[in-house]
Design brief:
about 15% strand; Rossmann fold; alpha/beta; 6-stranded parallel sheet
Length: about 325
């Protein structure tokens, strides 16, 4: 029988995930990819993306007898598969592992419908495990969905190393700047207001941020991905991650990549980050202006800056590479031989 990885992106991580799983598990793995990464901007793009989350899994449902395990790298592929399996009462359905599970509940009618859809899907017998990337998050979701704890697994995440390729035409807006990156669960309003009174420069890379602040030391860039993003990271002084919700995982891709590059991270308090970050490899602050000012002032000290930088690189190489993550995942799922 076939074991398949369902992904909504194309990249070296998916290729390597398959290679490592083929090597360390007793199963043979294949990949089904549909690149939806560009469908995040605008109502029409987002609508198409959500429709595809329901259409693509149908091909798996039709051929379900061919599959043994389904590793849903995109969580919504796994959720909709589970939804179909329960709705149509499909027997002998493949075991679904839902990766990178993130859910944020809101108080309105549409969100209530969404909550019950997610809960209905996660309760399906076809769901083998739901993977989140921190222990506090696991307990939060158990409480939120009233599911048995054994349905969830907490696995520390890791990323594939990525080298920035220097380009002659790369000219950042400032010679010295802090960088903020990402879309989900970010409080950029707080960050922009803070930099009105900070004598430093800030570049924000975010496709979904509509603001254009009239502040000379703050620049917002959109559609910056791949090597262009890595160049901005390579040449920045440090990275700032201001978070909104304190319960859900956010910013992991950004702070792990920053650790790889030895860029000190200033991040606001979040329950899920302590599995990765500490006072030696980052600066964790309360979300208020004074704490942010003090953190930036600390990074003006070369000794403190260099100590955090070296510790973050060391921690990344020891614990947070993609190989380490996949091995932890396979071991947690008891797939290792």
């Amino acid at each position: 029988m076939i074991n398949i990885i369902l992904a909504d992106c194309k990249g070296p991580e998916i290729v390597k995930l398959r290679l490592i799983l083929n090597e360390i598990t007793p199963f043979s793995w294949d990949v089904k990819q549909c690149d939806l990464t560009k469908l995040h901007n605008g109502f029409l793009s987002n609508t198409i993306r959500y429709i595809m989350y329901f259409i693509i899994p149908l091909s798996i449902v039709i051929r379900r007898n061919k599959y043994q395990h389904i590793l849903a790298w995109q969580q919504f592929f796994g959720i909709t598969l589970a939804f179909y399996s329960r709705l149509f009462r499909l027997k002998c359905f493949p075991k679904i592992v839902i990766m990178t599970f993130i859910y944020k509940r809101k108080e309105n009618l549409l969100s209530s419908i969404y909550y019950h859809f997610i809960k209905y899907s996660l309760e399906a017998d076809s769901v083998h495990k739901i993977i989140c990337y921190s222990e506090p998050e696991l307990h939060y979701y158990v409480d939120t969905f009233k599911l048995p704890p054994e349905r969830f697994l907490s696995v520390l995440y890791g990323i594939e190393k990525a080298q920035a390729v220097d380009l002659d035409g790369f000219n950042p807006e400032f010679d010295n700047y802090y960088l903020a990156v990402g879309r989900s669960n970010r409080d950029y309003r707080f960050l922009i207001e803070a930099f009105e009174n900070i004598d430093k420069n800030l570049i924000i890379l975010c496709d979904s941020l509509d603001e254009n602040p009239n502040i000379s030391n703050v620049v917002i860039k959109r559609n910056i991905h791949g090597n262009d993003y890595l160049l901005y990271l390579k040449h920045c002084h440090g990275v700032i991650i201001p978070l909104l919700d304190t319960k859900i995982s956010s910013g992991q891709l950004v702070y792990l990549r920053s650790m790889e590059y030895g860029k000190p991270v200033i991040i606001t308090v979040n329950d899920t980050l302590y599995c990765y970050l500490n006072e030696k490899n980052s600066i964790i602050i309360e979300k208020d202006f004074k704490s942010l000012y003090n953190a930036i002032e600390l990074l003006d000290d070369d000794n403190i800056y260099n100590a955090i930088s070296m510790q973050s690189v060391s921690d990344f190489n020891k614990r947070f590479t993609f190989d380490a993550f996949v091995n932890r995942l396979a071991e947690a799922l008891q797939w290792t031989e």
